[in-house]
């Protein structure tokens, strides 16, 4: 079912994310990279031992950030044209790739629009903003869970697909041996979009951005 970049760069990632509905393609997002050279012991002392947690996430946990808001912003690359002759995909849908389920922010968002269900869950977002050529997906509660040591949440990769409706979060089987299931929402549209990633080759003002607003705990 899903096609992919022929030779994806699994080390630093590709410069562009090619998304397409129907029998198209998806992308994988690693929230905090792969660097893991240190951790913290039970007393909060840094130890030079990998612990299976990205270093950036380790540091945020140790500083006990209180997350007020967090979102991922994707910018559209129009320099290469679009995978379809129509407008860019209407909406993006992010999900837990490993467990093949929606993010907790999806369930927390109960916003609806009467007569226009395609706008439902607009706080969680993912809607295309034509004037700014971008999509923003809010994942505040997902990040809060990752920072909560008591929950022991695992920082799994996120899958990204295009969709016409956010209401369908069921999965469908594929013929791809790597991604055996994908969200059924991706099948409902033939539109696509090319997005900038967050690699060093991407213009600074177009990079995929994880924006976090937080409050520091008062040091004793």
Please tag this protein with its features.
220 residues; mainly beta; globular; 14 strands; four-stranded antiparallel sheet
Give the % helix.
10-25%
Radius of gyration: 18 Å
Structural class: mainly beta
Count the beta strands.
Answer: 14
- What is the mean predicted local confidence, pLDDT? 86
N to C succession of SSEs: EEEEHEEEHEEHEEEEE
Question: End-to-end distance, in Å?
Answer: 55 Å
Number of helical segments with 4 or more residues: 3
SSE inventory with pairings:
Elements: E1 16-20, E2 27-29, E3 39-40, E4 46-47, H1 55-63, E5 66-75, E6 91-96, E7 101-102, H2 104-108, E8 125-129, E9 134-138, H3 140-147, E10 158-163, E11 171-173, E12 181-183, E13 192-196, E14 209-215
Antiparallel strand pairs: 1-13, 2-10, 3-4, 5-9, 5-14, 6-7, 6-10, 8-9, 11-12
Describe what you observe in this structure.
The protein is mainly beta and 220 residues long. Helix content is 10%, strand content 29%. The protein has three helices and 14 strands. The strands form five sheets. It has a four-stranded antiparallel β-sheet. Strands 8-9-5-14 form a four-stranded antiparallel β-sheet. A hairpin with a 7-residue loop joins strand 11 and strand 12. The longest helix has 9 residues. The model has no long low-confidence stretch (mean pLDDT 86).
Short description:
With 220 residues, the chain is mostly beta strands. The chain contains three helices and 14 strands.
